[in-house]
Amino acid sequence: MSIAESRRGNAVMMARYLLTQQPQATCSTEPTRGRRPYGLPLQDPTTAHNPLHRTGTPVIDGVPKVEQLSPTARPRFPFAFSAAFFCLQFFCPLFFCLPTSPLFAQDAAPGIATTQPAEGQFVELPDGTFMVPYEETIPGSKAVFKMVPIPGGKFLLGSPDTDNLRREDEGPQVEIAVEPFWMGQYEVTWGEYKRFMALDRTFKKFNQNQVRTVDDSNRIDAVAAPSSLYDSTFTFDAGGGSNQPCATVTQFASKQYTKFLSLLTGEFYRLPTESEWEYACRADTTTRFYFGDDPGGLEEHAWFLDNSDDERHVVGELAANPWGLHDMFGNVGEWVLDAYEPAGHGRRKTPEQLTGSWYLPATTAGPRVVRGGSWELEAVDCRSAARMASDEKAWKIEDPNIPKSPWWYTDSPATGVGFRLLRPLSPPADRAVRESFWQADVPTIIADVDQRIQHEGKGALGLVDPALPAAMKDK
After folding, report:
1. Distance between CA 231 and CA 234 in Å, rounded?
2. Does residue 41 have a pLDDT over 90?
3. pLDDT in tens, 301-317
4. What are the DSSP calls for 80-135, one per residue?
């Protein structure tokens, strides 16, 4: 059951509670990895090993330790009341699409447990609750994504000047303080991303029928769906399976996907900053790779030039890092929010710039930062500190459009560029701040999107909210 489906059933669950007063829980077990409590000092990875173990965390409907209510318990109210209530469920669907209120609240926030898990992966928080892994089904689909908790702490961003493989843009090293967050256990897959791609036709159908139209009163909830592929050969040639990572997507398209997912689920998702990405990748290590300095062991952790057989691979097939994240090296490089600075990390000096959530804002369409290497790059490009700069011109040479697509690339190495989700523990309350993580950030991209949608009919603008899946079925 997805979080959205669970929330739509809150009223039903509340009624069952009033009728039964007899709770009952069901759960399953998902493999996880242990986690040190939030706020404790980081261990020195050169002198200590992560003592935490891979066991299991109780998961109930995708959210750990959430009590469900029995639908079979004997009612205390007359049958007529029960029958009338459930008629409301079927004949008044708009009622059940109302936002969750405290009265109807059933589940805790996804990924939060109020009691310490007996085993498995968790991060203890100062208020006595615990961040735990969770999974969520994209509403209206069968696509599932998994998020794992990452503890807060401090680390050195970049590579040391004593490393002979260090590049100029990887220094100087600076200490960064990072707050806890959840990160996608895997890179976003085609199975997930194609749900977003399908919005192009859906929104155009809505617009044709004057349904769910965008105007000034609701434009803030609009998402720019990517244009349909006029030739999918390049996009899917290296792998287009539902469990393979999506690729050839621009940073703008990736950011719009995170907005789509956020508005659909009610949780705030975004791309990671460069600091957050490297912190999660390193997982309390200081070596070139999270498994050590020698690239000889990379084939056990990454699909890269030496072992990829010229294709993207199913996510999660190789070993995870110490914090349970797969494919942080290789398979596809991953977008972060930062603009690329050739001089490296030297401009980070103020207290705000030395936090994990800060990122270098863009002033032009490119270059932006891609992390992690890919299936078509060498081992040196997969190091924890390695950075790749995007190239809007070179990566769109084969694109015949004018202006060129703001959603898709047509040339290598963009065949190895995708992304991974991040959900902060403390999301920004201000909607304008949230939008800054999702929207086009420079005038040229804004103009290109407008030109493509409004004047060429490529791509589409439409509203995203929890009611979208039902509207897509009815269109």
Report:
1. 7
2. no
3. 999 999 999 999 999 99
4. HHHHHHHHHHHH-TTGGGSPP-GGG--SPPTTEESS--SSS--EE-TTS-EE--EE
Tokens of 88: 């409301």
Cα angle for residues 218, 220, 222 (degrees, 5° grid): 80
pLDDT digit string, tens, across residues 229-257: 978 888 999 999 999 999 999 999 999 99
Q: What is the reported pTM?
A: 0.79
Contact 427, 259 (CB under 8 A): no
The answer to whether the beta carbons of residues 164 and 173 sit under 8 Å apart is: no
Written as six digits, the tokens of 261 are 């997912």
- Tell me whether strands 134-137 and 144-150 are parallel, antiparallel or unpaired: antiparallel
Structure tokens at 31: 């493999």
Sign of the Cα pseudo-torsion (256, 362, 374, 411, in order): positive
Mean pLDDT of 4-15: 40
Whether cis (ω within 30° of 0) applies to the bond prior to 99 is no
